[in-house]
Amino acid sequence: MRNLLSGITAFFHLEKRMYIEFAIATILFGVNIILTLTMGYYSEHKAYYPSNAFIVVLIIAWLVYAVNLFWSKKKSTSDIAVVLFGFFILWEVSYKLGFIHNDLLIPSPEGLFHVFVEKPTEIRDDVVGSVKILLDGFLMAVILGTLLGLLAGWVERVREVLLPISNVITLIPPLMFSAYLIMILPTFRAAAIAVIFFAVFWPTFQGTVARVGQIDKKIIEAAKTMGVGTVGMLFKVIFPYCLPGIIGSVSKSLRGAFMCLSGAEMLGINIGIGFFIEKYKSFADYRCVLAGILTVGVVTTLFDIVINKIEKTVIKWKD
Amino acid sequence: MSEINVNEKKEGAAEIPYTIEINHVSFDYIDKKTRFGALHDVSLKIRKGEFVCILGSSGCGKSTLLGLLNGLNKAKSGELIINGKPISGPGVDRAVVFQQYSLFPWLTAKGNVLFGLKQSAKKYTKKERGELAMQYLESVGLGDSADKYPSQLSGGMQQRVAVARALALESEILLMDEPFGAIDPRLRLELQELVSKLSIENQKTVVFVTHDIDEAILLADRIVVMEPGKIRTILKVDFPHPRVRSELIRSDDYEKLHRQLTSAFYDQLMENIDKEVAL
């Protein structure tokens, strides 16, 4: 309730320029809706899809935009909305006017978003499957990478052994392992998890080592003079100091992990959004392929948002 | 050498016992070619409850000496004894306040003080620790800022928290390495008076390193003037506590002592400059 109120008051405190920009973006949104609902097709197409899914997407996009504009008041918000709605109008109009002939490769926006109405359970199951594999490999890699990174960062001898090794391994794209991993590991699932693990483990390890190296010597000395031992130093001093860096690298490596996951799934696992894309590629159903790609983008973005939220609530301090 | 020590210990036991004994200590920075901060055959004894200021220009080894006392540096030869036991490394019997801000940035002011309490040799329940932490923060005048992070505090406030954290260790000895060097003069005076008051209230034995003559006179029972690598002279300061700077500086004794210190401090500086010029 208080949020709503502050939102309303914020609305009346916007600059004039922002109202104009908001109006332009909203007019584009309205044009988009009207075109989608009323404009007829001026060319022959193989299939025509109902527009309800696309309309829902447009409305959601507009709502997200409006809320973001009034809460964050970032100047770029309206620009993004204008580009997005402009792009949709262009796509819609050129499709209906017949500028886009190849139905197979480039669907109409209605057709693309209708995939989510046609196959909701399939997409949901594949997203859940992907996320499960991702989390398994990811959590393991982050926990072990952090522990080993703390140890190597603190103990010079361990570091001198592991850092050169990791420098070589991180240069090899994790997907290159996957063909081999599928051979040696019992299941495709285990192989996919292993690929994710390799994609995340070494960057996490290296990031943690680097962060431990950055810690101010005075902080270590202060801890030493307070009688902090090795274990206390690692977990009560170095770990909390490194935590923001670890969370920061988590969001970065998560993106890499998602890439690897989609790749790993394409290699033969029978669940997951990568599998979804691969499957419809072999059916030459590029409408579904695009929908799958879009889903990967949305899910990754959602993960990013969640991690940022976690970072903001956990880390309240600055150096 | 050991015989002499025994004799001196007996002598000391007659009055107030020695808390800190530094016997013929030498120190070299092996990795550096310069002799910056080295010590040669330094001896000093500090009694329980005494406030000793070590005064010297930069590079004379005063911070090195403190580093030996807090256990972060190891002496090349000689021995350092705390309450009859040789120093083997850092320990909670000695609390340290550094020049640079050394608070843990991920903990609030109260969290930092609590950290000190948890490390302290005495065992408290969680509730007692919370109450004590607030008590220490209030004693440095920061009861209101308990939940602030170091990045939200000014330099002077951070050093206050550092003092509170050092007090929270509840050690007998307080080692301070130019703690107010980076703080603006007006605030510095406030902090000096605070430290003087707290060290007496909490019956601390204090070793306080500084290059500020006025600071030394305001705080110390004894001032150890150093020249590079060794002790030049030791002067007693007899003004009664609590000392108020504005009153002190009007007295003749203050001026006399100040002149003595200045000449000890600057003669040695001039000698050094002459040496360098000669080279």
DSSP helix fraction of chain B: 40-55%
**Strand order, largest beta sheet of chain B:** 6-7-8-3-9-10
Major β-sheet profile of chain A: none
Biggest interface = A-B, 20 and 25 residues
CATH class of the largest domain in chain A: Mainly Alpha
Q: How many beta-strand runs of chain B? A: 10
Look at the structure and give the mean pLDDT of chain A.
Answer: 87
Which superfamily, in CATH terms, is the homologous superfamily of the largest domain in chain A? Answer: MetI-like
> Which oligomeric state applies?
heterodimer
Write a brief caption for the model.
With 319 residues, chain A is mainly α. Chain A has helices at residues 2-12, 16-38, 52-72, 76-97, 109-118, 120-154, 156-169, 174-184, 188-214, 217-225, 230-266, 273-282, 286-314. In chain A, helix 3 packs antiparallel against helix 4.
